[in-house]
Amino acid sequence: MLLVVDDQPAIRHLLKEALAVEGYEVELAANGREAVAKVQERCPDLVLLDLKMPGMSGLETLEQIHSIAPQVPVILITAYGELSNPGKAERMGVKCLIFKPFDLNKVRAVVRKVLAETSLQSV
Ligand SMILES: [Mg+2]
After folding, report:
1. For an engineered disulfide with 16, which of 26, 67, 96, 99 has Cβ 3.0 to 4.6 Å away?
2. What is the DSSP string of 46-111?
3. Where are the domains of the chain?
4. Measured in angstroms, how far is the CA atom of residue 6 from the centroid of ligand 1?
């Protein structure tokens, strides 16, 4: 299951559709708290996480997700200039960054790549 976390409904649903046509099961969360609750319920194979959200930020959400599920790969969705410290995100375990506005084909390619890498590591 892939978990998509973004405060903008249009983006959540766009990503869900784009990934569902590839055959992935997709769950949605509108904010960090919802995302953490979903991860507690069931560990996703991958999380697509918006950086800028009201309330809990993407990086705060990332910390909490990784305290529950340290192994889950996280792709951070951001806009140019929003992430002041990309090195920090990397050290926090972000696998990959996707910049808004994103190309859905690229998103699908990145998801495929990160999932492939993750399954190799777990063998
Ligand atoms: Mg946002």
Report:
1. 26
2. EEEEES--SSS-HHHHHHHHHHH-TT--EEEEEETTT-S-HHHHHHTTEEEEEEESPPHHHHHHHH
3. 2-117
4. 6
How close is the Cα of 34 to the center of ligand 1, in Å?
A: 14
Q: How much distance in Å is there from the Cα of 51 to the middle of ligand 1?
A: 6
Contact 37, 5 (CB under 8 A): no
* Number of other residues whose CB lies within 10 A of the CB of residue 56: 18
2-117 classified as CATH 3.30.390.30 = no
7 Cα–ligand 1 center, Å: 5
Q: What is the pLDDT of residues 4-19, one digit of tens each?
A: 999 999 999 999 999 9
Contact 28, 4 (CB under 8 A): yes
**pTM, 2 dp:** 0.94
Q: What is the pLDDT of residues 64-78, one digit of tens each?
A: 999 999 999 999 999
